[in-house]
Each structure stands twice: as C-alpha cells, then as structure tokens.
C-alpha cells in the first residue's frame, strides 16, 4: 500500500527539481523527505529519480509514475473538500507561451473571472520547450502554445495558424509596402527577440541573402521590442498576432514559415474532463475570436 505523504513529497521534488526546496514546501526536514521518497521507491520496486550534485531528474519509471501521482493527489484533495461539505474548486494550471501578446493575457484573465468561484486558474508563462517539459512532468495541466503535428504525446486542439511578419515603425520608408525583401533591409538596425521560436529561421533567412544587421537591442520582452520598433530604433520579425496601432507589419518576402497555436493537454489529465472545463472552453473560444477579428 502506498501512503499519501510520500506521493506529496515526490510531486514536490518533481515541481522544484531539488530536495531541499521540496522539503521546505512540504514543511519537513530534508532527511524526512528523503526517507519518504526512499519508502515510495521501495514500495514501487524502482528508482524514481536520478540524483546528481546539480539537479534531480526523473527516471523513465518516475516520469510514468508522475502522471498517476498527479491524478491521485487531485482525487485526495477533491475527497477532502467533499467530506467537509465544501464546493469543489478546481485548480487548473494553464501554461502560456511567452510569445503570446500581453493583450491576449489580459483578455483571457477578464473572460475567466466569472468562473473564479468554481475554477481557479494558475498562469504559467514559459518558452515552448519549458512548457512541453512541464506538461510531460505533470507540472501544468494545459498549455496554450505551439502545436506540432510530429509530437503525439499530448491531446491537441489547433486554434489558428499565422505567418511571421516584419514589424516597422509607421515612419519607416518601407512602412507602406506590402512585401519587403530581406535585401531591402541591409542597412537597417534590428531588434532581436530572444524568446522568438523562429529566431534561428529568421537569422538564416537574412544571412542567406547577405544581410548581417547591427542589433540595437536584444530583449526577451516582446512589449519592449514593439516599443523600440514604434520609437524607430529598429525593425524586427514577429508573429502576425502582434499587429497593433503604431506598427506596420508587411510580409517578409520569401519567408514562408508559419506557426500553429493551440491547446495541449497534459498526459496526467483526464482529457475529456479538462476539455469540458470553463477554462478550456473560454480559452479556446477567446483565442479563436481574437484571430478572426
């Protein structure tokens, strides 16, 4: 029989990647937590973690067990609330790709407010690779991120496709042009978006055409990148969804890369139940409406 407390210790280590921080979260000493994890591993007859001086990583068996551990802990919490006559308030951890516009975050937060009494949403912002890792480990339940057809680990619902475009200030000489070749930007200053998932592709596109610009700024903040473009400091390449006042977004001639944004469901989640939640439905409906305007 597996006790509950080692499962809680296990999930804390998964979430923090570190025994000392996991122990602090569980309000126990690190030796106590280590003993609990060892007891769980003996009960299961396999190692759950690979330990090193720097970090703790899940073994393949540990990754499989994490999926079930999340479900077990969720059921425990729901049972406790039911016994005490409390209304069930689900907590849904929603991952958000860093290259989703801030205005969409705000619109989604507003749209979800009417459902706060029954569903509590935790927003987790990260780059694509980190979101996929969190989904696989059970650290988030759902993610609004890139959907890649070659990855079949998650239940996916594509919501929209979009191209990447140039972002220019309105007083840029090419602002009124519908399609701009890379060669026309040879003498332009550029802004690098460090979190852009297409950064390597855009770099190759310009380099192949002999364009090696000076970068006036390199930022992981897309709002800041847009502000610098709007001020005329330089130009950049962004997904089309970032279109807004004060910015011109012509096509980058010959750059055909697109991205698909959608919702991915974590393996530990009951996909049918999660897709029936207000969080899932509101997010899908809102993103579709934003991209159809």
Features of this protein?
10 helices, single chain, Arc Repressor Mutant, subunit A, D-Maltodextrin-Binding Protein, domain 2, seven-stranded mixed sheet, 293 residues, 24% strand, two-stranded antiparallel sheet, 3 domains, elongated, alpha/beta
Q: How would you describe this structure to a colleague?
A:
Helices cover 41% and strands 24% of the residues. It is built from ten helices and 13 strands. The strands form four sheets. Strands 3, 4, 5, 6, 10, 11 and 13 form a seven-stranded mixed beta sheet that branches. It is elongated. The relative contact order is 0.15. The model has no long low-confidence stretch (mean pLDDT 90).
**Topology pattern, helix = H, strand = E:** HHHEEHEHEHEEEEHEHEEEEHH
Q: What Rg do the Cα atoms give?
A: 23 Å
First-to-last CA distance = 55 Å
Mean pLDDT: 90
Shape: elongated
How many strands in all? 13
Largest sheet: 7 strands, mixed
CATH fold group of the largest domain: D-Maltodextrin-Binding Protein, domain 2
**What's the helix count?**
10
Derived structural class: alpha/beta
Residues in helix, %: 40-55%
- The second-level CATH architecture of the largest domain is 3-Layer(aba) Sandwich
Q: How many structural domains can be distinguished in the coordinates? A: 3
CATH homologous superfamily identity of the largest domain: Periplasmic binding protein-like II
Stretches where pLDDT falls below 50 for ≥5 residues? none
CATH C-level label of the largest domain: Alpha Beta
Task: Provide a short characterization of the protein structure.
This protein is α/β, with parallel strands linked by helices. The chain has ten helices and 13 strands.
